[in-house]
Write a structure and sequence with these properties.
By secondary structure, the protein is mainly α. The protein contains 6 helices and 3 strands; from the N terminus they run E-H-H-E-E-H-H-H-H.
Length: about 130
């Protein structure tokens, strides 16, 4: 059991309420090493104030398509500064993610065009 530091600590419920993340998500982030928690004498997880910023940053990164594994590989600077610009160290990763999203969009547009053609012609067009 870790000794509690002198700073104010948040319960998982408080952290969830402040950030809008679910308790389950916060547990998931903590279990994957994205947050630092300590255990109180009653066994509950407690989080330092900086966890608010970290959870918000994690949520932003997930919303842009990054996975927990991707985020774990990012440098700490991505998690510690609320609203921070991206660290130079992950620009390549972000560009690759953008390329993957562009590929998905192009694939969906092709599927959409095929479906529209199918609907208008009444027959499935050949694969190009």
């Amino acid at each position: 059991m870790s000794k509690l530091p002198a700073e104010k600590l948040l319960t998982i419920g408080e952290l969830a309420q402040i950030t809008g993340a679910s308790v389950r998500s916060i547990r998931h982030y903590d279990e994957h090493g994205l947050l630092a928690s300590v255990r109180a004498s009653n066994g509950y997880r407690m989080f330092p104030d900086k966890a608010v910023t970290q959870v918000r940053q994690i949520q932003r990164m997930i919303a842009t398509g990054f996975t927990i594994d991707d985020i774990r590989a990012f440098p700490d600077c991505m998690l510690l500064i609320d609203g921070a610009r991206s660290c130079d160290q992950i620009s390549d990763v972000q560009r690759k993610r953008l390329d993957a999203i562009d590929q998905q969009i192009a694939d969906l547009e092709r599927r959409r065009a095929r479906l529209l053609k199918t609907l208008s012609e009444g027959a499935v067009p050949p694969v190009e």
